[in-house]
Amino acid sequence: MIDCGEGTQIQLRKYKFRFGKLNHIFISHIHGDHIFGLFGLLSSFQLLGRTNDLNIYAPGELKEIIDFYKRNFAYDLNFRIIIHPLGYKRKKLIFRDEWLEVHSIPLKHRIPTCGFLFREIQQDLNIKKEAVDKYKPDLESIVKIKKGKDLKISHDMVIPNCELTYAPWKVRSYAYISDTAFHPSIIKSIESPDLLFHEATFSGEDEILASETSHSTSFQAAEIAKLSGAKKLIIGHFSSRYKHIEFLVDEARKIFPETYPANDGDIFLVNRTRMEFS
Amino acid sequence: MIDCGEGTQIQLRKYKFRFGKLNHIFISHIHGDHIFGLFGLLSSFQLLGRTNDLNIYAPGELKEIIDFYKRNFAYDLNFRIIIHPLGYKRKKLIFRDEWLEVHSIPLKHRIPTCGFLFREIQQDLNIKKEAVDKYKPDLESIVKIKKGKDLKISHDMVIPNCELTYAPWKVRSYAYISDTAFHPSIIKSIESPDLLFHEATFSGEDEILASETSHSTSFQAAEIAKLSGAKKLIIGHFSSRYKHIEFLVDEARKIFPETYPANDGDIFLVNRTRMEFS
Lengths: 278, 278
Known about the structure:
Number of strands of chain A: 12
Distance between the termini of chain A: 38 Å
CATH topology of the largest domain in chain A: Metallo-beta-lactamase, Chain A
CATH architecture of the largest domain in chain A: 4-Layer Sandwich
Strand content of chain A: 15-25%
Oligomer: homodimer
Order of helices and strands of chain A: HEHHEHEEEEHHEEHEHEHHEHE
Shape of chain A: globular
CATH class of the largest domain in chain A: Alpha Beta
Largest interface: A-B, 21 and 21 residues
Helix content of chain A: 25-40%
Strand order of the largest sheet of chain A: 4-5-6-9-10-11-12
Number of helices of chain A: 11
CATH superfamily of the largest domain in chain A: Ribonuclease Z/Hydroxyacylglutathione hydrolase-like
């Protein structure tokens, strides 16, 4: 989960999300609208009998806040909260397992803030069943083929890997950029994400206000999407001054047509596709 | 406002409540589900430009929590938060203006907790227009009539007050009792309220659990309503273990037929009626 504003646990219940599945929370910065849902969520974890560790990747200052919470509301918590403090100097790998890696990306806000890049790990290749039936490779060879090696079947005959395996899945990536002023140096860091969430607190007309409060306009969000080579842009974190947000989406689409607004409960699927070789 | 659980400001917006009208918050006790909405609400007040004092009637420990909030999230708050600490020895008058008085009523929970009794102030009597036209009382006499005095129009003729004024409005009252174990000593304190909210966390079948956690069953809530002479009972604060709460209402109605469940957004009107004299 990324950020945890007030009412998060209520929304999780509404959308029938299983609380027990949540083991990693990424907090961009310590402003109320990004963390005021933590206390209630932690209390619900306790009430539901959680014992699994909970990992929180967040500015180090969160520790004091969690300690305060524990002291006042949950001195007998039955699970560990492990806080992994973020850094702000450069992009940094903060999580990696077999399937996914997560990098923190320093942003430009009024207080220390990071965005996050979620990227799949390139998995081993899938061998074609016909190739196994035909060449009957031994276990050692199978492991090598899956890693991309060709198969030597005699001293003068080699089957190229591309005949043995399916084209690999492309790794998918999602970048979450909020809250931040227009900050083009992140373009390199987010590496053409399949999906980019970028805050668009203000309309282009309110660019001065955006600059003063270290937020972005919808134009600026679209600019980042375009320059980074993102495939799709979601904008959100809209100022409550705008009663309707369609025009913010329209603004962004002038620069980056594949722009969509973030509404409560929206699901954006990123389909798996196979690499194409020329 | 009474208590402020997570998501309160979201609900206030949903029901189009004007934030600026909220000047007094009554907090029964320092458990998360009764106060985790405070931080977000205070931040929204600040964002909306509030400068009016905010009065919070709450256990004294809230001060440390508000101080922590200010230090970490709102060091530049533009309005004062005045905390009025509750007492736990006896029923106590904690607020009074021209129209309303509020008493705190100590309850029986795992931590210091108070319920609240809201009662209108008996207003001056309304003089009948016909009486003014007929007897033409002077200003001084009018003030006296409004206070219930008879009108002396000559040395041997007195017009009784009941001929000069309408029957007075009955004062209305609302008692809020949550969270608490079954605690019959409050019956005297709540003084036959027109409307009683009483927690009913558990079903009668789970009476042991209610006792262990210092909560009440729906039977117990109904018992308090009946013995106190309440006119209408609202039950709520239901345990999430019950998927449907109709049977809790049915239980309570066996003892106190005028029982209704508290649902989000419900409005319970208490109509003004005039006193009847025999």
